[in-house]
Amino acid sequence: MKNNLKIINTDSRYLSKKISKECVHFIVTSPPYWNLRNYGYDDQIGFKQNYEDYLKDMKKVFKECFKVLKSGRFIAINIGTVVSNDGMKFITGDFVKICEDIGFIFRKDIIWHKPKGQTKWQRGATQFSQNPYPLKYNTNINHEFILVFQKGDSLDIDLSNVKRFNKFFVRKNAYSVWDIPPVNSPKNDEKHVAPFPEEIPRRLITLFSFENEIVLDPFAGCGTTNSVALELGRKTIAVEMSKDYCDLIKKRTKNVTLDKSLMEIYDESEDYKEMLAKENMDNLFNSYIKAKKKYEKILGDKEKAKYKNMELFDD
Ligand SMILES: C[S@@+](CC[C@H](N)C(=O)[O-])C[C@H]1O[C@@H](n2cnc3c(N)ncnc32)[C@H](O)[C@@H]1O
Predict the structure, then answer these.
(1) Residue 123 and residue 3: Cα distance in Å, rounded?
(2) Is the same domain home to 163 and 295?
(3) Are residues 282 and 199 in the same domain?
(4) For the chain, first and last CA: distance in Å?
(5) CA of 195 relative to ligand 1 center, distance in Å
(6) Where residue 150 sits, what CATH number does that domain have?
(7) 151 C-alpha to ligand 1 centroid (Å)
(8) Residue 171 near residue 111, CB atoms below 8 Å
(9) Is the pLDDT of residue 162 over 80?
(10) Are both 255 and 280 inside the same structural domain?
(11) Displacement of CA 291 from its chain's centroid (Å)
């Protein structure tokens, strides 16, 4: 790849015709949902398709992703559950099955939790709040999934000269639920694209690739993944079927350069292991003190209760 950014205006069901096999280091994407959004052109995946056809098309895309991804490397897919008249569609489960059929190994599921008050209030949940009776329960869905798969299990990488993450970054990402506000009101020219927040590709690209490596998004939309990848010093490929969105990506990424402030997640100190060990000891000690206080209180309460009972029943 000569330039750091390549925008390919094509159908991702055939992306291996445009991208060489085994050349991509990491794939991150949020595919079109089933039957939710019209991106405004013919033959798009998801819109006015029955669920089976949608899954067949998604399988084609993931197969193509498998071909272009390097062995041992990862793909992260952001997807949510869809409500339909004939029941909920747990796309997450179907994607896991599809990807395993193709040969990917399912490695992680992360829940993207959208903090309360930051999502649009959904119709079903509104109906429940206006009709709050048993059996009328409905939820305002405020989570999606991020599924991480690996192509094979051999990771031939020497980490001896690689910078390690600092403890803050490790802690932020160590839990499987990520609290990240959604993008609620995209700018006018990004209308209909349904972008995900930059924080999602930012964390994933940092966790699953190295500088100068190639990051692909096969459903690039307005280029959130690509813009973040450039800020993080990666090379990046955007595949997007809409010509208008390709123009948006070009516009959005025009002046994006490496953002050094995003590199403040690494730890340079030599005594990292010692520091972590000390911290673990401190945590252990604090937990011990907390537990001790708790049990002292329980035992104290029990003693009090004993005497109280005696007072009650002795005479
Ligand atoms: C959920 S949006 C992706 C948004 C993106 N993550 C962002 O932040 O802008 C899904 C995108 O997939 C594109 N798309 C749908 N079918 C496609 C296909 N067969 N090939 C390539 N892109 C497609 C749509 O045009 C839309 O831009």
Answers:
(1) 45
(2) no
(3) no
(4) 92
(5) 9
(6) 3.40.50.150
(7) 23
(8) no
(9) yes
(10) no
(11) 35
Say yes or no: 25 and 67 in one domain.
yes
137-152 pLDDT, tens digit each? 999 999 999 999 999 9
Q: Distance, CA 74 to ligand 1 centroid (Å)?
A: 20
Protein residues with CB under 6 Å of any ligand 1 atom? 11-13, 30, 32, 39, 44-45, 193-196, 219, 221-222, 224, 239-242, 245
Rounded to 10 deg, the angle between the 199-208 and 224-231 helix axes is 50
Average pLDDT, whole number, for the chain? 89
Q: Do 164 and 305 have their domain in common?
A: no
Tell me, yes or no, whether 304 and 212 share the same domain.
no
pLDDT at 93: 97
- For residues 12 and 241, the answer to whether their CB atoms sit within 8 Å is yes
Q: Is 78 helix (H, G, I), strand (E, B) or coil?
A: strand
| Same structural domain, 40 and 164 | yes
Task: Tell me what pLDDT residue 60 has.
Answer: 98
- Our count of domains for the chain comes to 2
Sequence-separated (6 or more) residues with CB below 8 Å from residue 182: 114, 118, 119, 196, 197
Burial of 268 (0-12, 13-18, 19+ CB in 10 A): exposed
Of 243, 267, 291, which one is at a domain's C-terminal end? 267
**Are 224 and 161 within one domain?**
yes
Q: How far is the CA of 259 from the centre of ligand 1 (A)?
A: 26
Please count the CA atoms within 13 angstroms of the CA of 168 that sit on its side-chain side: 5
For residue 24, give Cα distances in angstroms to 8, 28, 65, 70, 150: 14, 11, 9, 6, 13
The whole model's pTM is what? 0.85
Query: Which residue's C-alpha comes closest to atom 19 of ligand 1?
Result: 11
Atom number in ligand 1 closest to CA 30: 6
Opening angle at CA 225, ends 223 and 230, nearest 5:
95
Which residue range is the domain that position 261 belongs to?
Answer: 5-267
Mean pLDDT lowest among 22-26, 158-162, 177-181, 230-234: 158-162
